Amino acid sequence: MSLSNSPKLVSGGLVVMPPGGGTPKQTIALQYNPDTLTRSYQVQGSGGDAGAERATPFRLKGPAIETIKLDAEIDATDGLEHPDGNPNAVDFGVAPQLAALEALVNPSVAELQALDALASAGTLEIVPPEAPLVLFTWGKGRVVPVRVQEFSITEEAFDALLNPIRAKVSLGLRVLTVDDLGFRHKGGALFLDYLRAREALAAKAGSAAPAALGLTNLP
């Protein structure tokens, strides 16, 4: 296949929106899509203890808790090869990209100062600021609200001023469901779309005949 006919590569990434939804504040595209995406599920059974689980073994009280883990690489090499068009790469390396990810797990300075002002004024009940709504995107068929639960950065190379020019980021994301957000929240609606898409894919898998399992009929 010629390069002109090659399909355009879609990047995975994160979309940062206001807490209740609305116009995206920032889109973070992964520079290189990771080769591996690990997803794990914690089933939400109906019972709170072993006895209840035995009494209702097939009942699910809600969507399974899904966790997504990935490692992403960020590299300023390409930008440094064309310094005139990439002044940020020259001045800061990959620090801006890392800072954008760090902002997902920290309240802003303005929010912290607002909390301090309330405490100084003697406010009895101080409500912590609500974090932005973050969407993990992996192609148009997988857009799902998440909370960053695990986040680590390994800076692997530096320029003469000790700006990182290459780094590896490990992300652990917990998918937020309607149990977390409710049915009327923008994130809850997006989760239902995500779950609906998974159900549609499952329907395409079809069903094998019992003979494929060595069974002539079910016991």
Any overview of this molecule?
With 219 residues, the chain is of the alpha+beta class. It has one domain (20-195). It is 27% helix and 26% strand. It has seven helices and seven strands. It has helices spanning 50-55, 77-81, 87-92, 95-102, 109-120, 178-181, 186-204; strands spanning 13-17, 26-29, 38-42, 65-75, 133-137, 143-158, 164-175. The chain has a seven-stranded antiparallel β-sheet. A hairpin with a 5-residue loop joins strand 5 (133-137) and strand 6 (143-158). The chain is globular. The chain starts with 12 loop residues before the first strand and ends in a 15-residue tail after the last helix. The model has no long low-confidence stretch (mean pLDDT 90).
What structural class results from the helix and strand content? alpha+beta
Q: What is the quaternary state of this protein?
A: single chain
Kindly provide the radius of gyration, computed on alpha-carbon positions and rounded to a whole number of angstroms: 23 Å
Low-confidence stretches: none
How many beta-strand segments?
Answer: 7
How many discrete domains?
A: 1
Separate helix tally: 7
Brief overview, please?
With 219 residues, the protein is an alpha+beta fold. Helices cover 27% and strands 26% of the residues.
Which secondary structure elements does this structure contain, and how are they paired or packed?
Blueprint: E1 13-17, E2 26-29, E3 38-42, H1 50-55, E4 65-75, H2 77-81, H3 87-92, H4 95-102, H5 109-120, E5 133-137, E6 143-158, E7 164-175, H6 178-181, H7 186-204
Antiparallel strand pairs: 1-2, 1-5, 3-4, 4-7, 5-6, 6-7
